[in-house]
Amino acid sequence: MTISTSWGVAQGDATEQFRDWALVCSEAGECRLAQTLMSSDRVWLGTVILQPLAQGEQARMADLFVPLGAHFPSGVFVGRGGGAMQRAEWVHCSEVACEARFQLDGEGERSWRAGQTAELRYRPSPSAPAASIDISLMGVTAGLQALDQLADDNG
Asked: Are the CB atoms for 32 and 39 separated by under 8 Å?
């Protein structure tokens, strides 16, 4: 599944792979770190996109894309292994997916860099139980370092 984001990059346009994370750059040179989440039978469950840390900022923005039909009133949540879940803010739905956004602050980012998995949780439909999807954190440290270095070089 290809997700086109508001910054115009398709998930399949990886310029560099960091284990389970892909550094994805647009023709304009804007880069993000992304991971697509699939079930064992290759059904798309979501996409996580981490943005570069803006100069002077203490938290980076992250976008979550989930399938159409996800029950947003129940919430879309993200967290790291056994820790508190953070509610993502709903942004909008397009013809292919729904988008939510959250901030990954310094403590959260350190937790992601030190961990092996995080969790994405949402209800696929109003009547379905909450789905809990593992987000691999393998490669996120090297990927974020590369992402932020590119942002510094282009900044």
From this structure: no
Nearest to 18 by CA among 136, 97, 129: 136
Residue 52, SS3 per DSSP: coil
Q: What is the pTM of this model?
A: 0.89
122-127 long-range Cβ contacts below 8 angstroms, 24+ apart: 122/46, 122/66, 122/70, 122/71, 122/74, 122/75, 122/76, 122/77, 123/70, 123/71, 123/74, 124/67, 124/69, 124/70, 124/71, 125/69, 125/70, 125/71, 126/71, 126/73, 126/74
Please, are residues 146 and 154 in contact by the beta-carbon 8 Å criterion? no
List the end-to-end C-alpha distance of the chain, in Å, as a whole number. 31
Phi, psi of 120 (to 5 degrees): -110, 130
Topology (CATH level 3) of domain 14-149? Immunoglobulin-like (2.60.40)
CA distance 78 to 107: 14
Residue % of the chain over a pLDDT of 70? 89
Mean pLDDT, rounded, of the chain: 88
